[in-house]
Specification:
By secondary structure, the protein is an all-alpha fold. Helices cover 80% and strands 0% of the residues. The radius of gyration is 24 Å and the shape is globular. The two termini are 44 Å apart.
């Protein structure tokens, strides 16, 4: 038969508990983001099939668009490749931005989200870590797109620095765009719904742009949309850097759009994230 603990023993255990709580260290923003980034990368290592879209899309998109549309639009696939490769690269990376929102939505559905809310970490680290981990996905898709393009004959007159600068701005824009999909991912109920809503928005934005055809060849009423379409500015800036024709005004417009998207959607996503139950 167990004897009841004495009052002195209960005081000792209470002191131990208080000491334990005092030893819990709040994980700061930097370490918390790195922890969640590493967690997302581990998920890719355990399920490498997640990278199939980043591996297959670039190859399929380049081959399909160049050899199916190249002769009709530019006369030869080789000429069209010089125009279309930056657009294909931009479209490929932009479509990959929806993956972060699908990951967060899946965490919510599985209950992992509630577990994270109890951890002594910087609250937005879960979202920011997932966003940074997807940069690996963007990098793989970019390298494969460029390799396939170079094998088929694409040449960037802007050189390696031009390509890196253009890709860097593209990644920055995609990081901002991911915050918009996070709002969708935190509001809808399933990952498939996230994909459905995001693709519904992305299809007109990417295809009704300067990615695959010059706006001058389109009807006047359609040019009005194409010229204000943010994807057109992203594609044009990337193409200018790769062709050594970049301008300061083009860079500033793209940076401005990126800042506006983050300023609008990051606070909304964080507000929903903190209030979601």
């Amino acid at each position: 038969m167990n004897a009841k603990p004495s009052a002195e023993a209960r005081v000792v255990r209470l002191d131990d508990t208080l000491d334990t709580h005092q030893q819990v260290e709040l994980l700061g923003p930097g370490r918390a983001v790195l922890t969640f980034t590493w967690r997302s990368l581990l998920k890719i290592r355990h399920v490498p099939e997640q990278l199939l879209d980043a591996v297959l899309y670039p190859v399929l998109f380049v081959l399909m668009f160049v050899y199916v549309l190249g002769g009709a639009i530019s006369g030869t696939p080789e000429d069209y490749l010089q125009y279309a490769l930056p657009g294909i690269l931009a479209q490929t990376i932009i479509f990959l931005t929806i993956y972060t929102a699908m990951t967060i939505n899946a965490d919510i559905q599985k209950g992992v989200f509630e577990r994270y809310r109890t951890q002594p970490v910087w609250r937005p680290a879960h979202l920011v870590g997932a966003l940074l981990a997807d940069m690996l996905r963007y990098g793989i898709a970019t390298v494969l797109t460029l390799i396939v393009g170079f094998v088929l004959g694409y040449r960037a007159s802007g050189g390696l620095l031009g390509v890196l600068a253009g890709v860097g701005l593209l990644f920055l824009f995609c990081f901002a765009l991911s915050w918009m999909w996070l709002v969708v991912g935190l509001k809808v109920r399933t990952p498939s719904a996230v994909q459905g809503v995001s693709v519904l928005i992305l299809f007109p934005l990417t295809f009704v742009s300067s990615a695959y055809a010059p706006p001058e060849t389109m009807p006047t009423w359609l040019q009005a949309f194409v010229n204000v379409n943010p994807v057109t500015h992203v594609v044009d800036t990337l193409r200018d850097f790769m062709n050594n024709e970049a301008t300061l005004s083009g860079v500033l417009i793209l940076l401005g759009m990126t800042a506006v998207i983050i300023a609008i959607f990051a606070p909304i996503a964080l507000r929903i994230y903190n209030r979601i139950s």
